């Protein structure tokens, strides 16, 4: 499952890079990385874009990236930002700890590394919190020209198809092998472009469900495509080894109706955890008659760390509505230090939000308070906001759905 013929590797690099030069998408971080003479600024731009692109579509990221770079054009500027500002800008991108760790790492570069980014993938991964093997490889190859490979979701798909790797693509044996393949094939003189080309191919041509093999610049080097067009080579997938840990398992052989999408294979996904949370939108009329909502801040670690939300209470499953209401009233009363009658809570409805690993249902209540209502409580931090201020705050997409 490796590329054993140096001539084939050379041809693959040539074909892929020629296609990339012709067809690459114009993306703001590419423009900056291609024109910026300062290697630290190049690395910063690539780093920000790569962290934003994890689990998020390119089309969504562009706008966030542009606003981020306008606000914090350098590592030094980011190091001086507050977590509140970072969360505000990140709101809607999801996986909030990514923004937080990016900022922590920027502070570390400024305070401990004299503002100079580590120059190799190994050092980037070792020294910067939140920078994993993939991000380190991307920054080092694109910004510093280190000939090191990258393996992300797109690369996994492309390499599994190119090499007919059909074992569970999240297994350590397959992942280790893919890193070996990626490091072996990366172009020595244009490693950053080569890695971006491989990812771009996965994003635009070698798509998960309907790959455009007819238009693919590397189909001549693709074993899955050969398997479909000319039938199997020696062994089940062109691999001679019996019991090979990289071939499809004997119990799930090649399915001809799937064609090249036989690869990659994934183990069955774990079902998300089901959770219910009661949410109370406390409302009052502010000094100019404008409606205001009360927000409280989440703890600084864990899910949605440091973000603002309506006062919330996790609920046991299968609790009757009356019991939910009472539990929420008790929770509010304990926290606000004033009586809250369960009957005063108005049930508005339910909102479902899917986090990566949680299927969350918010049961939404509202409670109108007097215009001059204040709160003695200092923990957790709280504040009154208008609807406009709410949308500009560091709130999660789930809370926006609640509104
Ligand atoms: Fe992917 Fe098809 Fe190209 Fe192979 S030929 S790399 S399966 S698009």
TrEMBL record:
<dbReference type="InterPro" id="IPR000445">
    <property type="entry name" value="HhH_motif"/>
</dbReference>
<feature type="domain" description="Nudix hydrolase">
    <location>
        <begin position="272"/>
        <end position="403"/>
    </location>
</feature>
<comment type="function">
    <text>Adenine glycosylase active on G-A mispairs.</text>
</comment>
<comment type="function">
    <text>Involved in oxidative DNA damage repair. Initiates repair of A*oxoG to C*G by removing the inappropriately paired adenine base from the DNA backbone. Possesses both adenine and 2-OH-A DNA glycosylase activities.</text>
</comment>
<dbReference type="GO" id="GO:0032357">
    <property type="term" value="F:oxidized purine DNA binding"/>
</dbReference>
<dbReference type="GO" id="GO:0034039">
    <property type="term" value="F:8-oxo-7,8-dihydroguanine DNA N-glycosylase activity"/>
</dbReference>
<keyword id="KW-0408">Iron</keyword>
<keyword id="KW-0496">Mitochondrion</keyword>
<dbReference type="GO" id="GO:0035485">
    <property type="term" value="F:adenine/guanine mispair binding"/>
</dbReference>
<dbReference type="InterPro" id="IPR000086">
    <property type="entry name" value="NUDIX_hydrolase_dom"/>
</dbReference>
<dbReference type="Pfam" id="PF14815">
    <property type="entry name" value="NUDIX_4"/>
</dbReference>
<dbReference type="InterPro" id="IPR004036">
    <property type="entry name" value="Endonuclease-III-like_CS2"/>
</dbReference>
<keyword id="KW-0378">Hydrolase</keyword>
<protein>
    <recommendedName>
        <fullName>Adenine DNA glycosylase</fullName>
        <ecNumber>3.2.2.31</ecNumber>
    </recommendedName>
</protein>
<keyword id="KW-0479">Metal-binding</keyword>
<keyword id="KW-0227">DNA damage</keyword>
<dbReference type="GO" id="GO:0051539">
    <property type="term" value="F:4 iron, 4 sulfur cluster binding"/>
</dbReference>
<dbReference type="Pfam" id="PF00633">
    <property type="entry name" value="HHH"/>
</dbReference>
<dbReference type="GO" id="GO:0006284">
    <property type="term" value="P:base-excision repair"/>
</dbReference>
<dbReference type="GO" id="GO:0005739">
    <property type="term" value="C:mitochondrion"/>
</dbReference>
<keyword id="KW-0539">Nucleus</keyword>
<dbReference type="InterPro" id="IPR003651">
    <property type="entry name" value="Endonuclease3_FeS-loop_motif"/>
</dbReference>
<dbReference type="InterPro" id="IPR029119">
    <property type="entry name" value="MutY_C"/>
</dbReference>
<keyword id="KW-0234">DNA repair</keyword>
<dbReference type="Pfam" id="PF00730">
    <property type="entry name" value="HhH-GPD"/>
</dbReference>
<dbReference type="InterPro" id="IPR003265">
    <property type="entry name" value="HhH-GPD_domain"/>
</dbReference>
<dbReference type="InterPro" id="IPR023170">
    <property type="entry name" value="HhH_base_excis_C"/>
</dbReference>
<keyword id="KW-0004">4Fe-4S</keyword>
<dbReference type="InterPro" id="IPR044298">
    <property type="entry name" value="MIG/MutY"/>
</dbReference>
<dbReference type="GO" id="GO:0000701">
    <property type="term" value="F:purine-specific mismatch base pair DNA N-glycosylase activity"/>
</dbReference>
<dbReference type="InterPro" id="IPR011257">
    <property type="entry name" value="DNA_glycosylase"/>
</dbReference>
<keyword id="KW-0411">Iron-sulfur</keyword>
<comment type="similarity">
    <text>Belongs to the Nth/MutY family.</text>
</comment>
<dbReference type="InterPro" id="IPR015797">
    <property type="entry name" value="NUDIX_hydrolase-like_dom_sf"/>
</dbReference>
<keyword id="KW-0326">Glycosidase</keyword>
<dbReference type="GO" id="GO:0005634">
    <property type="term" value="C:nucleus"/>
</dbReference>
<dbReference type="GO" id="GO:0046872">
    <property type="term" value="F:metal ion binding"/>
</dbReference>
<dbReference type="GO" id="GO:0006298">
    <property type="term" value="P:mismatch repair"/>
</dbReference>
